[in-house]
Every structure is written in C-alpha cells, then in structure tokens.
C-alpha cells in the first residue's frame, strides 16, 4: 500500500507515454514453464535438472558462489532472477540485457551504459540457474522486431528455492525473494525505466531500441496490483 500511495504522489510528467507506447496491446497470457519444459526435453546439457535429487543443493551452491563473487555480478544476478521469477510474461534476451541496467536507488534509474553488450552474458551471470530457449508462438515478438530467444529459470525448483523462507538464514540470503518486495521493485523499475523518455523520442522503431518499454508500460500496473493483493492477504 505504501508503494501505491508513493506512486500516486509522484508528479510523473511523462506518464502519458504509457498510452502512447501501448497503442496496440497484444496481451497473451503464456505459461513460462512451457518454455522451460521444451528446453529440458531437447537440451541434453539440462537433463540434470529433471532429477529432483540434489537439485536444491545445486541451486544453493550456485547462489553461494554468486554471493561470494564479484559484487556487480551478484547484483545483476539478483535483478535477473527477480524478473524471471515474477515477470508477467516470458522475457527475451534483449529485455534481460536492459534489466541489469535498472537501479531504482539512483536517478535516473536506467543507465544505458550498463546494458549488457552481449545479452547472452545473462547465462554467465546466473550460471546454470537460467536457460535460453526459442519462442516461435508470440506474435508480439514480430511486432517489436526483437529476438525470439527467451530467458527463463532453468527449473521450477529454482523459483521454489528463491521464495523459501529458509533461504534467509543461509549463505544465499541476499537472493531471497518475497512477493511484495519483488513486485514493489518491479513497479519502481518499470516506472523508472519509462521516466527516461521525452515525448520527442517516440519515433518509428522506438520499441526496437528500448526493449523494455512495452513491458514496462503494460505491466507496471499489474505488479502494483500484486502488491495490493499481498497487503489484503496480510490484513
């Protein structure tokens, strides 16, 4: 609720961009796990994820190594895992490349110089916790002219581990995910991303340059509603 009140109090001069960016909304509710299952069925390198024995230990080990590694990579990994865990739809490699460049603690929140030059670096940052597959179904990718390569959590156990209460007491505590906190962060990330634009920047091909613009414009309100739902459940 605090986040919603904060948003309502902002003087967001450029939020008219929301309607401009969403002139034609193509909203298709996809099951992200569909892409994961497809990849697991066809990629021999990921077969280990189909065996539950030791999967959580593998996840814990990877997160521990990330937590003890380079600070920048650790922060990038948190942002990527948060978006993959709570995104409203599958995310292309190009979108994930921009996700790491959003820091809501600074102004402006989005720093184009921080965008991953090679989007596939997301695989290195998150190790085997994420995978990439190809989406041949979503018409929105043709509309935006963006990559059909989708980044997703490599196994449902990854999300299960990240949202477990017990993760907060271990070495991987910094990767713990709470629904309300993560949706709050995604609302701020989406709006922070959108506020970088001036009206003059809305040109043909805009969405092909700013990959997260469409998602941010269409789904920030969805994440805001999730915060409200969590507040009602707690009440």
Notes on the structure:
With 235 residues, the chain is mainly alpha-helical. It has helices spanning 2-9, 17-21, 32-42, 55-67, 71-86, 93-99, 121-126, 140-144, 156-162, 179-194, 206-209, 213-234; strands at residues 91-92, 130-134, 149-153. The chain has one domain. The chain contains twelve helices and three strands, in the order H-H-H-H-H-E-H-H-E-H-E-H-H-H-H. Strands 1-3-2 form a three-stranded antiparallel beta sheet.
Q: State which percent range the strand residues make up.
A: 5-15%
Order of helices and strands: HHHHHEHHEHEHHHH
What is the domain tally?
1
Query: Helices and strands: which structural class?
Result: mainly alpha
Organism: Bimuria novae-zelandiae CBS 107.79
InterPro entries: GPIID_WHD (IPR054471)
Pfam families: WHD_GPIID
Domain GPI inositol-deacylase winged helix: 76-165
SSE blueprint and pairings:
Elements (H helix, E strand, L loop, with lengths): L1 H8 L7 H5 L10 H11 L12 H13 L3 H16 L4 E2 H7 L21 H6 L3 E5 L5 H5 L4 E5 L2 H7 L16 H16 L11 H4 L3 H22 L1
Antiparallel strand pairs: 1-3, 2-3
Describe, in short, the structure shown.
With 235 residues, this protein is mainly α. It contains 12 helices and 3 strands, in the order H-H-H-H-H-E-H-H-E-H-E-H-H-H-H. Helices cover 51% and strands 5% of the residues.
Brief descriptors of the model:
mainly alpha, 5% strand, 51% helix, GPI inositol-deacylase winged helix domain-containing protein, GPIID_WHD, globular
